[in-house]
Specification:
This protein has 210 residues and is of the alpha/beta class. It has a single domain, classed as 2-Layer Sandwich (Endonuclease, Chain A), CATH 3.30.870. Strands 1-7-6-5-2-3-4 form a seven-stranded mixed beta sheet, sandwiched between helices. Strand 6 and strand 7 form a beta hairpin. It is globular.
Amino acid sequence: MSEKNAPNDQNEPELPAIDFQSPGRFSVLNPQSNPATSPSPREPAPFLLGKHDRLERFSHPDQAQAHALALLQQARHSLCLYSTDLEPWLYSHSSVQEACTRFLLASPRNRLRILLRDVTRPVKEGHHLLNLARRITSNLHIRRINPDHPADGSTYLLADDRGLLLREQPELFAGYALYNDPARVRQLQAQFDQAWDNSIADPDLRSIRL
């Protein structure tokens, strides 16, 4: 730009100085992300498999969780789970996964079998037992209940030939646990084995290498 066209500052009025006072230091409060925390360990119910003869009813989720964990921790030979969708509130927990891991690694003859009506939710959302199935494939098996065969409307867990946790209405938390009832367990075991023989492999479970 030439001097001829440059603005002439000499005739411009001088602007008054701006009186600026700092408000001082201030802090910016950003929302803090909650750190990832491990879920609290569950405590098993204080009953012994094969020893406690009384029927134990429950109506709250924490009671059902305690009975399920007690049966899973004490099983020594066989575990059978008949479920709608692996009931995440009941079985998707680190304490459950740890109990099943110890059971499966205790002996190559120990076997955990799981029958599901719907595998979509546990596969989509992730589940502790599905994560375990990815690591231990020799004696943990998951299959889908055959929709063409009559199915029991209840959900239950069988531990060896003595223990049982049963919920007759899956939409409710209520149910009962038995720790020493061979006759009742034998009856449900026969139903489970028949459903297992008629069960089908589900494509959604192929990536889990079952």
